[in-house]
Amino acid sequence: MTATADETRGKTHGTAPTPLSVLDLVTVGAGRTATDALRTSVEIAKLAESRHFHRYWVAEHHSMPGVASSSPAVILAHLAAHTTRIRLGSGGVMLPNHAPLVIAEQFGTLEAMAPGRVDLGLGRAPGTDGATAAALRRTDRLNEGADDFPQQLAELIRFLDDDFPDGHRYRRIHAVPGPVQATSPGGVQSPHRPPVWLLGSSGFSARLAGELGLPFAFAHHFSAQNTVPALDLYREAFQPSAVLDQPYALIGVSALATEDEKEARRQVLAAALNMVRLRTGRPGLVPTPEEAEAYAFSPMEREFVDSWNANVIHGTPDEVRSGLDDLHKRTGADELMITGNAHSGDVRLRSYELIADAYGLPTA
Q1: What is the pTM (predicted TM-score) of this model?
Q2: Which of 21, 97, 188, 303 has the greatest count of CB atoms below 10 A from its CB?
Q3: Can you give 38-105 as a three-state secondary structure string?
Q4: What's the pLDDT tens digit per position in 308-335?
Q5: Which residue, among 118, 123, 116, has the nearest Cα to 107 in the 3D structure?
Q6: Shortest CA distance to 247 belongs to which of 287, 293, 207, 305?
Q7: Are 313 and 265 in contact (CB under 8 A)?
Q8: Are 92 and 59 in contact (CB under 8 A)?
Q9: Phi, then psi, of 363 in degrees rounded to 5
Q10: H or E stretch including 278?
Q11: Which residues are registered as beta bridge partners of 121?
């Protein structure tokens, strides 16, 4: 049993040039709690569903006070209880951090909760710093996990499909919920299996996704210089499979819309300050715009902020729409997955609403 192209490809709505989706980092602002952030995620997911965004993904991160998405499967189960139609998935689960059987079981459970709505996006990076990755994996040999990614991926897919060959050491081990239940007395086969996506910010996963005929998601929001080369590599390497007959690539995009251009600049400055602190070993909660405006950036920090924000599409709804349209033309991405980072959950929620309005997305 494999996922199908119909479970991968999105539909375009309104005047959007391509399907639009949401990437959620469950950001926690200064003065807010993780509970507040998760409540915002529910509200954004409900809005995204009502406005016909195609999918809603949650990204795995660790040891970052401003990012409360360390357990994507748990968050997705919560979101599944508050939605009925929108696709839900990981963007992504960092496979080297986990045993493949565990991921197969978690996402088999999610599929049972929300049949036909679950995506399994996989990355090979740790989603954190080296020390935290070592604690997660209980080993200091971190490169070993990344190097073994193709083997881990193959094992995970075998567990999802329950098709280890005779003689394999895992032949009698089954991911449950999963296909093995259909072979038990009285069992009924589920028609769905979570589609597997490969995620990346360089060429490794792009090439592997192409060779395996899997859909590919590229992290344009933090690796913009590699976007076009990675997508070209994916398309060049693509081999038709039981999943896809043609390449399908989405890109993650940082975008924030506000009614006022100046306010958008204030909001993205705060998010950029959060990145400055993260990159310099001082991770914390997302600061307020007022704190960011009062912060004395060093010349090196200011250079980083300018470079970072050059890849954040921000401004009025019309400006954001224009920026997204231009990005789509430059990359030919099959889907745009928008992540809106800001201190306030209300600002993030309003941004997605404004973008939906700008493209005339349906309201029901």
Answers
A1: 0.94
A2: 21
A3: HHHHHHHHHHHHHCCCCEEEECCCCCCCCECCCCHHHHHHHHHCCCCCCEEEEEEEEHHHCCHHHHHH
A4: 999 999 999 999 999 999 999 999 999 9
A5: 118
A6: 207
A7: no
A8: yes
A9: -105, 10
A10: helix 261-279
A11: 197
